[in-house]
């Protein structure tokens, strides 16, 4: 069962909201339905956890417009489009914006549940990765300006002696800075430090 996993439904047709809610509830999901994109945006935090099932063609604000708004807010919420107006162009746009899936109505129940399961798993992985990046950034923020200079040089592969020459400092001083960098970043090897910093700076 999927107890506790939150699914958000946005569709302007009450009958579809009701049917999808019943299906997802029976699979163990917690479901919250909205009749419009604006209602969803005003009620749900863009950083919410779970999955969003979204109708493409709605009055006022379309599904693609909502997806774009979430993207601009750096939301990790995966989007599954359900639409009776499916076309290749809209599908391509949705997938380029990061949609998890694009399904046409009437959708097969098993296909939808499979898409939701994959989207929720993807959301968990993305949130875990985002949390890890946040921790790395917090550790980097604890470094002094000098420790940051030492960090930048040692991850380029410079030896303590070379770092000392570059910064005009004694080698034993660089060893102290290096040890503090490793301790603050909570790593034991240079390779681990390089991977950690690379993740943040190339994300």
TrEMBL record:
Specify whether Transcription is a keyword of the entry: yes
Presence of the UniProt keyword Transcription regulation in the record: yes
Q: Which residues form the signal peptide?
A: none
Residue ranges of domain Response regulatory in the record: 6-120
Give me any GO biological process, just one.
phosphorelay signal transduction system
The record, for Gene3D superfamilies, names: 3.40.50.2300, Winged helix-like DNA-binding domain superfamily/Winged helix DNA-binding domain
Mark the residues carrying the PTM 4-aspartylphosphate. 55
Q: What molecular functions are annotated in GO for this chain?
A: DNA binding
Cite the HTH luxR-type domain residue spans from the record: 136-201
* The entry's keywords: DNA-binding, Phosphoprotein, Transcription, Transcription regulation, Two-component regulatory system
The name of this protein is: Response regulator
Q: Which organism is it from?
A: Duganella fentianensis
């Amino acid at each position: 069962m999927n107890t506790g996993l939150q699914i958000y439904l946005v569709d302007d047709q009450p009958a579809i909201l009701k049917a999808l809610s019943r299906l997802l509830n029976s699979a163990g999901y917690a479901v919250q339905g909205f009749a419009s994109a604006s209602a969803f945006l005003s009620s749900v935090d863009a950083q919410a956890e779970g999955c969003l099932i979204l109708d493409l063609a709605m009055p006022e604000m379309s599904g693609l417009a909502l997806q774009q708004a979430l993207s601009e807010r750096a939301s990790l919420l995966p989007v599954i489009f359900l639409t009776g107006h499916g076309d290749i162009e809209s599908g391509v746009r949705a997938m380029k914006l990061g949609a998890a899936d694009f399904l046409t109505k009437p959708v097969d129940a098993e296909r939808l549940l499979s898409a939701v399961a994959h989207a929720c798993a993807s959301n968990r992985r993305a949130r875990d990765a985002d949390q890890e990046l946040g921790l790395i950034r917090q550790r980097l923020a604890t470094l002094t300006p000098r420790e940051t200079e030492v960090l930048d040089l040692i991850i380029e592969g410079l030896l303590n002696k070379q770092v000392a020459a570059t910064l005009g400092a004694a080698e034993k001083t660089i060893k102290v800075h290096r040890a503090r960098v490793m301790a603050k970043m909570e790593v034991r090897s240079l390779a681990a430090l390089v991977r950690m910093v690379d993740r943040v700076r190339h994300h």
